[in-house]
Each structure stands twice: as structure tokens, then as C-alpha cells.
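[Automated response] Your request has been received and processed.

Submitted sequence:
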Amino acid sequence: MKKAVVLLLSFLLMLSSMAAVFADAVTGKEVITLGRDLSEEKKQQMIESFGNPGNAEIIEVTNEEEHRYLDGLLDPKVIGTRAISSAYIRTEEQDFGIKVETNNITWVTTAMYEQALSTAGVKDVSVQINAPFPVSGTAALTGIIKAFEIAGDITIDEDRKKVAN
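Generated structure:
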């Protein structure tokens, strides 16, 4: 309970400074995050599942990054030992909102992804989360925040990343 209160207060303090972080992101910017532990064949399968966007910047998310942001918040069994889930993020026109679709994700809900994006100050994006087989979805959760550092050409403070995750 104490941890939740501290996180909520941290969130409220940071929200005003973060609200405009992604407001100026270029419409149409595309980023794909791939779990580092996917085979090359599965990475290609994920890219194809996102429609083979030719202009997308591709980055990897590691299991170590998942643990950095989620340890102490989730059971280590949920985080697991491999980064598998992947995400496709596209910045959209103003007032588009946050739209998230998932496939093969068993633990992280659509609402959790939406909340993480909103908490990080992200607006007007479409996001697809996918995995080649059922997984918890924590690599994609960590990856979407990492992707917006690229989309917004900014660095998000580590504490902010933890709150968003």
C-alpha cells in the first residue's frame, strides 16, 4: 500500500512536467520494439505481423530492462527470464487518443498498456502488441516507453519510466 501511495504521488508530481513531452512528436513516426530473446525468424514474424512498416525504427528490449523497471512491482515469474513480446508504435494526428491492440498477451491488459502510455505523457498513438506465442507481455510494456524516447527524441528520467511501467 505504501509503495502504491508513493508511486501515485510521484506520478502526480511528474505529470505536469511530462504532459507535453510527446505532444510535439512527429505524426507518422513508427517504432518497433522486439524482444531480444526472439530468434531471427520470430523477429521477422513480428515485423510482418505489424505490416512490414518500412520506415519503422527497430529497437530491442532485454529481460534485464524488464527487471530494472518491474522488479518489486510484479512477481518475477510474470516477468520471466526472456524478452519475447514486441510492439509497433505509430504517432498519430492530434486528438486521435491512445489505441492499443494485443495478440498472444496473457498478463498485461490493454488498459495497462494504455495507462503506462498515459502516465508517461504519451498522446495520440496507435500501438500493436504481439508475440509469436502466449506470453505475459512485460517486454512490450517496457518497450513502449523506450520507443517513445525515440519517437519524441527525448530521454525520459529513470524514475518516470518506473512510474509508467
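Summary generated for your ticket: The radius of gyration is 15 Å. The helical segments are 2-18, 40-49, 63-70, 76-79, 110-119, 138-151, 158-164.
If you did not submit this request, please reply to this message.
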